[in-house]
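Sample entry (255 residues):
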Amino acid sequence: MPRPPFSLTDDQARAISAGVAQLELDYPIDPQNHRPFVRAFIRLVHTATGRFYSPAVYRRLLGAYAQHRRPSTSTLAAEKAALAAETTSVEPASEVAATLSMPSALPALIANAVADAMAQSCRVDGIAAAQAAFYADRLRETELELRTERMNAAQLLAALNQSRETAAQQAEETGKLRGVVAAQSEAITKLTAEVSDLRKFALVAIDDARGETRTWKDRAAYLESQRQLDSRLLETFRQKAYRNGADIPELLKKT
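Predicted structure, serialized as tokens:
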């Protein structure tokens, strides 16, 4: 049958609320050690309800009455087991002796002792089973976290390998581009040298052309002056010939 849902009566809730207020004064917060407060809180709940509960129930009660107290599940389980062992009822030695003095009560005393031992054994077994279940849960959680971390590590390793391959490809492409750049740089150097030679040749040709042009200009000027001199001499000789009775050509007469 399923367990009934956990609940408190109004009187139990009031008793726990009032008791927690006193516990806050008696046990100030110690981040390094929650155990004294946890032991006192579990004792308070047991006094108010007459029962022990699972660590999950104690965590719910802490969330309701002392939210700033956050002990671990293992601390709750250990303190519950220790307090349960402390509160195991054992008959006083005087009562046992008095009972042993009555022979008729001996079988009942033996039966009670056996029942108490069995109950305590069952209680201890229950505590051990609860602790074993808690550690089994923690083991499963740890294994799940380990698998998750391994998957993350595998993904990171795959990404790292891919990055290395990409880096190798980029390095190879960079080497090729460096070769292309070196070839282009060499070609540019050669072209620059050729252009420099062509420029020098062009400058020399231009200078030669300028010298030749000056020579022809000087020669043309000399010939022009010579022509003018010849024209003046010719005109002088012609005038002299006309004065001496030479015939004037028909062409000159028309002009």
